[in-house]
Amino acid sequence: MATHNVTTTWKVKMQFESTNPSGETFLINAAAEHGGEGTGLRPKAMMLSSLAGCSGLDVASLIEKMKLEVDDFKIETIANLTEEHPKVYDAVVLEYHFYGNNLNESKLQRAVDLSVEKYCGVMEMFRQFASIEIKLFFHKN
Its Gene Ontology molecular function terms (predicted)? Predict the structure, then answer.
């Protein structure tokens, strides 16, 4: 079993510095309306980035393995935040946008399906507390 260790250190006011198991660091800060200075990343939004990043890495790997022609792709993540405290995401939509002139839509759908249904551990964690909707968009250059 793998263990990940992360250290998050209070820097000043509402700002923390957090390590990543790779040794990289990043800043976490509250929004100005919550006493922060607006510098750094917001914890809940980082969860959405983690979700998209996890699935995106899967899909990028599968694009390479399937030898697909994709000029670019991005994932737009839209989440509903509940009104009551503790405010949590209860519904998330992931929009996968693929760009290129020779997109194999069925294989790209398969790559996304494999990520969503089999490989992405962050996706599985999100399923514990939120409904997830997946949409694919294919754009010709």
Answer: peroxidase activity
